[in-house]
């Protein structure tokens, strides 16, 4: 018995030929391996061609849109900025929206806006830098609202200083909110999605997750980690054969009216309209789109980063974004599309960007 186990382990480690290989004469084994490799490569390219053709077809005729009515959606950082805009659109589609934010006033304002357009909305004060708080509120949501089938990890923070000028606690907080919170929220809600084979996890990352920018070392690092998180999670679900749970990675350029990059010095490429980004996120959700780069043409430019010498990449980035944080920025209010705002609230918008601490601090929040 012990000998069989040793032989099996040696076969697994590549130290012993398998049963099929042993049946092939010694002189033919190398040729067999080459033939098998060629067949594998041909099969791979045929499979790849099929995916490409399918992708081109879908790009022309479009993707079918799934219904979100009666879904329960959790939006982190939903007390203002991009989170509140997405929440309004999901409510319009019939979702029950659950907003998470540490900004209690911002939560109350957004809940009123969503209910003002006839939507169902719940607000929960959550410290997204605390794993225990995330697990506690997730359990409460499951008991009070129901099974969450749509999770949008939108909350994010930025320090906006050179690395050596950034206090250690702000670096830690950036990773706690921008990356680690994704782990805790997914671990809290994914088991129920898998159980019902129905769910969608959205990661709001950034183009900064693919390209480094000065004064955003911690932010770029955290968003890069968020991109890796989404890709690995998607692959893991596919390996486990879970076809009903989808993931979407959203990578926008700098967005106006979210409270994070209002004063960014950007050349050539204008800052994005927050309403258009919110529309794009909802479209990606409804079509199960795995990756949405905003603006779309950036997706074609990204490969050049690995094809051209570093000095070219550096000149392009520094020319495109001379200064990501030219000056300290005060809190800004998100701009809501007029047709999404109830008459009773027009002229009285007061939603604020998501914050992790009271606003009177030198760092910025969304």
Give structural notes.
The structure is a single chain. Helix 4 (81-92) crosses helix 9 and helix 7 packs parallel to helix 8 (217-239). The longest helix is centred in the N-terminal third of the chain and has 33 residues, at 29-61. The chain is built from twelve helices and nine strands. Strand 2 (96-101), helix 5 and strand 3 (120-125) form a beta-alpha-beta unit. The strands form two sheets. The chain has a seven-stranded parallel sheet, sandwiched between helices. It has a two-stranded antiparallel ribbon with strand order 5-9. The protein has helices at 2-12, 19-23, 29-61, 81-92, 104-116, 131-144, 168-196, 217-239, 274-286, 298-301, 304-307, 310-320, and strands at residues 72-76, 96-101, 120-125, 150-153, 157-158, 199-204, 245-252, 291-294, 364-365. The protein has 366 residues and is an alpha/beta fold. It is globular and about 70 Å long.
Q: Could you list some keywords that capture this structure?
A:
single chain, 366 residues, alpha/beta, 7-stranded parallel sheet, two-stranded antiparallel ribbon, 12 helices, 47% helix, disordered C terminus
List the helices and strands and how they pair.
Blueprint (H helix, E strand, L loop, with lengths): L1 H11 L6 H5 L5 H33 L10 E5 L4 H12 L3 E6 L2 H13 L3 E6 L5 H14 L5 E4 L3 E2 L9 H29 L2 E6 L12 H23 L5 E8 L21 H13 L4 E4 L3 H4 L2 H4 L2 H11 L43 E2 L1
Helix pairs in contact: 4-9, 6-7, 7-8
């Amino acid at each position: 018995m012990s000998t069989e186990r040793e032989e099996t382990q040696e076969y697994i480690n590549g130290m012993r030929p398998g049963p099929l290989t042993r049946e092939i004469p010694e002189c033919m084994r190398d040729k067999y391996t080459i033939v098998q490799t060629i067949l594998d490569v041909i099969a791979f390219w045929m499979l790849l061609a099929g995916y490409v053709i399918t992708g081109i077809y879908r790009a022309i005729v479009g993707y079918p849109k799934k219904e979100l009515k009666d879904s329960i959606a959790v939006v982190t950082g939903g007390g203002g900025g991009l989170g509140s805009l997405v929440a309004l659109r999901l409510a319009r589609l019939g979702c029950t929206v659950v907003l998470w934010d540490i900004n209690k006033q911002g939560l109350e304002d957004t809940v009123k806006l969503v209910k003002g357009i006839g939507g169902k909305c719940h607000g929960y004060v959550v410290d997204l830098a605390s794993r225990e708080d995330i697990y506690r509120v997730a359990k409460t949501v499951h008991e009070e609202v129901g099974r969450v089938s749509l999770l949008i990890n939108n909350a994010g923070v930025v320090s906006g200083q050179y690395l050596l000028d950034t206090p250690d606690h702000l670096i830690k907080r950036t990773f706690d909110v921008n990356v680690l919170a994704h782990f805790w929220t997914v671990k809290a809600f994914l088991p129920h999605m898998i159980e019902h084979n129905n769910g969608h996890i959205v990661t709001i990352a950034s183009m900064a997750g693919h390209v480094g920018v000065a004064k955003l070392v911690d932010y770029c690092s955290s968003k890069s980690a968020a991109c890796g998180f989404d890709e690995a999670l998607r692959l893991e679900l596919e390996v486990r054969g879970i076809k009903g749970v989808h993931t979407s990675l959203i990578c926008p350029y700098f967005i106006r009216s979210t409270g994070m990059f209002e004063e960014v010095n950007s050349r050539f490429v204008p800052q994005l309209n927050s309403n258009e980004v919110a529309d794009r996120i909802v479209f990606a959700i409804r079509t199960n789109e795995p990756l949405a780069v905003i603006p779309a043409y950036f997706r074609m430019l990204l490969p050049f980063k690995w094809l051209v010498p570093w000095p070219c990449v550096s000149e392009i980035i520094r020319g495109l974004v001379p200064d990501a944080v030219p000056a300290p920025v005060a809190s800004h209010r998100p701009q809501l599309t007029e047709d999404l705002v109830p008459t009773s609230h027009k002229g009285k918008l007061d939603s604020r960007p998501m914050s992790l601490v009271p606003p009177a601090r030198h760092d910025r929040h969304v």
